[in-house]
Amino acid sequence: MSxxxxxGISSEWKQIAHDILKGNLPENAxxxxxxxxxxxxxxxxxxxxxxxxxxxxxxxxxIYSVFSSKAKRSYLxxxxxxxxxxxxxxxxxxxxxxxxxxxxxxxxYICKFEEAxxxxxxxxxxxxxxxxxxxxxxxxxxxxxxxxxxxxxxxxVNILPDGKTxxxxxxxxxxxxxxxxxxxxxxxxxxxxVRFSYLTPEFNSFAKEYSRARKNLAxxxxxxxxxxxxHEKHPPIKQTK
Length: 241
Hints:
Elements: E1 3-8, H1 11-21, E2 30-34, E3 38-44, E4 47-53, H2 58-63, H3 70-83, E5 91-98, E6 104-112, E7 117-118, H4 119-123, H5 127-142, E8 145-146, E9 155-159, E10 165-169, E11 176-177, H6 186-192, H7 201-213, H8 221-231
Antiparallel strand pairs: 1-5, 2-3, 3-4, 4-6, 5-6, 7-9, 8-11, 9-10
Helix pairs in contact: 5-7, 6-8, 7-8
């Protein structure tokens, strides 16, 4: 015996998620990624959407019998970071099927589909890109948002019609959100900034700009650089008093 739990931004999207989890995919659905998880693109009610099917491994079934599913967290975290002024493709719905002892059988997350450039490509455009991303990362941490896999794939970039750059986060389920008014610590800041780049002169410039951009906490750029050096198995820079 199993039960399906679903929620969405409207009763219609809640029902859509429920139906897709039961196997009723739109006829225009196209698989765009297949790995540990699967992602399907489709057009539903005139809107391009991405549907993420999470892994059904035995490990996940057992772990998420106790914890909220990745699908549910993606949906809730997506709505929350939008409320905090950070962009992510609009969350539309999630659904999960649970079996005996609340074991997680299947789960999906649905959001709007957006074309975007990955962070790696954008940073290759020059110094200004690094400066802009430094300010975005500082804003994330000042808003109490810690994306625990802040890499080139999970940060997406769009140039808007007014010429402004918009950074967007995806793959939200591992995120940590601090209560309103709390900010990311110096230690966690350093750990969070080690996955999107190699240790390059540009990264050193990024660390300095990030430190200048933090509004709610003084951060020494050397601490950011040393976090990166430790991540890449280099000896840290000695700081002089």
